[in-house]
Design goal:
CATH superfamily of the largest domain: P-loop containing nucleotide triphosphate hydrolases
Membrane topology: Peripheral membrane protein
CATH architecture of the largest domain: 3-Layer(aba) Sandwich
Number of strands: 28
Largest sheet: 7 strands, mixed
Radius of gyration: 24 Å
GO molecular function, one term: ATP binding
Distance between the termini: 24 Å
Oligomer: single chain
Strand content: 15-25%
Helix content: 25-40%
CATH topology of the largest domain: Rossmann fold
Shape: globular
Number of helices: 16
Pfam family, one: ABC_tran
Number of domains: 2
Protein name: ABC transporter
Keywords: ATP-binding, Cell membrane, Membrane, Nucleotide-binding, Repeat, Sugar transport, Translocase, Transport
C-alpha cells in the first residue's frame, strides 16, 4: 500500500503513523532473534527483516555480484562497504526492484522478496535514498514526493506533512519549490523526507551525508537511531569509514562482486576496513614537496548569481579549501571561475591577465581548468564514450582538436592515459560514461583535468560518493599537482577532505566568502560552526 494522510495530517502506511510520535513497528511472529552489540543508549535485540542468499548478477563481460549472502535485522544499522565497482549498486538495485538477479533468493519479513519493479519494492516496505537523485527537475518538492505514493493525498495536506517532517528532522524544505532551483544538498533532503513518509521496514541509504555539515549529519544520525529504535532495518552505504565505525552495528564488505565478510566495524580501524575493501593496505597521503609560490589567481569583488562581492587570491603550489553548506553559491562560484557564467570586468585575473570577459574555452586555453560537482550531464555526457568525453575539455590543450579537425587516435590515447593513471575500472575508452560507477567516472573526470596540466584547477566535490581507495588517489593527485606548481581551489562539503588537503580555508555563507584562515589548527567543530551558523543549525533533533 502507498502512504495516506489521516485527519491530523499524519502519514499512515503499512507500519503505522510516521512522525514525531511514531510507535514501535510491530514485527511478524517467528524468525531467529539476532543479538547485536549495543550502541550507546540503544540495546539491539532484533528479528531478521531482510536476507539475501546466493545472489548473482552477470552483465556482458562483468560478474557484478557473485554468491552474495547477508542479512539485516530490525533495529540494525547495517553498513555495505566496497570499492566503486565492487557490486554495491547492483546489489541494492536488486533489493529495490530495479534489477532482477540471475540466481539466488531474497526474503523480506520472512516472505520471498522478488520485486518486479521499485513500486513493488516500495509496497513491500523497501525505501531508498539514491546517491544520484531520482527527481524530476520541472516538478516541485511536493509533486516529486507524490510520485512515490500509490494514492497520494490532497496536495495541500501532503505539503503540510512534508514541511512538518522535514522541519522535525532538521532538513527544512519548501514543498512548493521546483527541484531545478534546489542545490544538491536540498535535493538530497527531498529524497530523505520522501523515504521517511513511506514508513519503510527496510531503508537503504546511499551516501546520505555527502552534502551535510557535521551538525546536519548528527541530526540525520539521530533520525536514523530513532528509526532503528522503532524497528526499521537500515542498510547504510557510505565511504566515510569513521562514520560507519561510529554509527553502524555491522558491516558487510564486498570486493570484486563477492562478500569478503561481515564484521563489527567498531572492532576494526578505518585503515583495516579499507584494507578489507581493496585487498591491500591503504597508502598514506603525502603532503610533502609543496612550497607556495607567486600569485596565480586573483578574484576581486565578484558578484554573480548568488555570489556577493567574493574576493580571493591563490598562489602556485597552494590548495585553497572552500567549505559551505550546499546551496550557498558553490555552483555559482565554479561557474563564474570557469567562465560558464559571465563575470564583470576586472573580477578574475590569471597571472595578472584579466580573464573576466573570456568564456570557458579561452580560460581553458590559458590553463584555467575546472571539474564541476555534477558528473553526469555537466562534467561528462552519459551517452558519449570516454574517448569522446575527453574532447569536452581537453581538445585544444592536448592538441586533439586542431583547425576544427579531431584526432580520434590522439583522443583515444589520452583517454587511455587517464584510465591508466587514475585506475578507472572500465572495459576500455570506448565505454559510455554513463556505464561507469559513480566513483570511476569521478576518477576519469578529475584525471582528465589533472593530466591537462592546469595553471589553476577548481574542483567542486572532488570525492563525493567515491570509495576510500579512490578518494585517497584523487586527493593525492591534487596534492601532487600542487607540488608541481599549480594553484588549486577545492570546493567541498567534506570537512575531513578540506582539512587534509588545504593550506588555507574559507567559508562560503549565503554567497559571501569569509577571509581565509590557515587550515593548520582549525578543528572540524570550528569549521562546522562557521559553515552552519547562517543556516539554522540550532535546529535540534526532536525525539519521538
Amino acid at each position: 500500500m502507498g502512504a495516506q494522510v489521516d485527519e491530523s495530517g499524519g502519514v499512515l502506511g503499512h507500519g503505522g503513523y510516521l512522525g514525531p510520535a511514531c510507535p514501535t513497528v510491530q514485527l511478524p511472529p517467528g524468525g531467529k532473534p539476532l543479538r547485536l552489540g549495543p550502541k550507546p543508549g540503544r540495546d539491539v535485540t532484533v528479528n531478521e527483516i531482510f536476507r539475501a542468499e546466493g545472489l548473482g548478477k552477470t552483465y556482458p563481460g562483468v560478474r557484478a555480484n557473485d554468491d552474495i549472502g547477508f542479512s539485516v535485522g530490525a533495529g540494525e544499522i547495517h553498513a555495505l562497504l566496497g570499492e566503486n565497482g565492487a557490486g554495491k549498486s547492483t546489489l541494492v538495485k536488486m533489493i529495490y526492484g530495479l534489477v532482477r538477479p540471475d540466481e539466488g533468493a531474497m526474503t523480506l519479513l520472512g516472505a520471498p522478496h522478488a520485486p518486479a519493479d521499485p513500486r513493488a519494492a516500495r509496497a513491500a516496505g523497501v525505501a531508498m535514498v539514491f546517491q544520484h537523485f531520482s527527481l524530476f527537475d520541472a516538478l516541485t518538492v511536493a509533486e516529486n514526493v507524490a510520485l512515490g505514493m500509490e494514492n497520494p493525498p490532497p496536495r495541500a495536506a501532503l505539503s503540510r506533512r512534508i514541511a512538518e517532517v522535514s522541519a522535525a528532522y532538521g532538513l527544512p524544505l519548501d514543498p512548493g519549490r521546483r527541484i531545478a532551483s534546489l542545490s544538491a544538498g536540498e535535493r538530497q533532503r527531498v529524497e530523505i523526507v520522501r523515504c521517511l513518509l513511506q514508513d519503510p521496514r527496510l531503508l537503504i541509504m546511499d551516501e546520505p551525508t555527502s552534502v551535510l555539515t557535521p551538525q546536519e549529519a548528527e541530526i540525520l544520525f539521530a533520525t536514523l537511531r530513532q528509526l532503528a529504535a522503532q524497528g526499521t532495518a537500515i542498510l547504510y552505504i557510505s565511504h566515510k569509514l569513521d562514520e560507519i565505525r561510529t554509527h553502524c552495528d555491522r558491516a558487510t564488505i564486498l570486493r570484486h562482486g563477492k562478500v569478503v565478510g561481515t564484521v563489527d566495524p567498531r572492532a576494526h580501524s578505518a585503515r583495516a576496513l579499507a584494507a578489507m575493501m581493496v585487498g591491500a593496505e591503504m597508502r598514506v597521503i603525502d603532503r610533502s614537496g609543496r612550497k607556495p609560490g607567486a600569485e596565480v589567481l586573483r578574484v576581486s569583488g565578484l558578484s554573480a548569481g548568488a555570489l556577493k562581492g567574493v574576493g580571493l587570491t591563490l598562489r602556485g603550489g597552494e590548495i585553497l579549501g572552500i567549505g559551505g553548506v550546499a546551496g550557498n553559491g558553490q555552483e555559482d562560484l565554479l561557474a563564474a571561475l570557469s567562465g560558464e557564467a559571465p563575470t564583470p570586468p576586472g573580477t578574475v585575473a590569471l597571472d595578472g591577465a584579466d580573464l573576466s570577459a573570456q568564456g570557458p574555452e579561452a580560460r581553458r586555453k590559458a590553463g584555467f581548468l575546472s571539474a564541476p560537482e555534477d558528473r553526469l550531464g555537466h562534467a561528462a555526457v552519459p551517452e558519449f564514450s570516454l574517448t569522446e568525453n575527453t574532447l569536452l575539455t581537453a581538445g585544444m590543450r592536448q592538441g586533439i582538436v586542431r583547425h576544427g579537425l579531431v584526432d580520434h587516435a590522439g583522443a583515444r590515447r589520452f583517454a587511455e592515459r587517464v584510465i591508466a593513471a587514475f585506475d578507472v575500472r572500465t572495459p576500455g575508452p570506448g565505454t559510455a560514461a554513463g556505464a561507469l560507477s559513480g566513483g570511476n567516472l569521478q576518477k576519469f573526470v578529475i584525471g582528465r583535468e589533472v593530466l591537462g596540466q592546469p595553471r589553476v584547477l577548481v574542483v567542486n566535490q572532488p570525492t563525493w560518493g567515491v570509495d576510500a581507495g579512490a578518494a585517497a588517489a584523487i586527493r593525492q593527485a591534487l596534492l601532487d599537482l600542487a607540488a608541481q606548481g599549480a594553484g588549486i581551489i577545492v570546493i567541498s562539503q567534506d570537512l575531513d577532505e578540506l582539512l587534509e588537503l588545504s593550506d588555507r580555508f574559507c567559508a562560503l555563507n549565503e554567497g559571501r566568502l569569509s577571509a581565509p584562515r590557515p587550515t593548520e589548527g582549525l578543528t572540524i567543530e570550528e569549521i562546522g560552526l562557521m559553515l552552519g551558523g547562517a543556516h539554522g543549525m540550532e535546529v535540534a533533533h526532536v525525539p519521538a
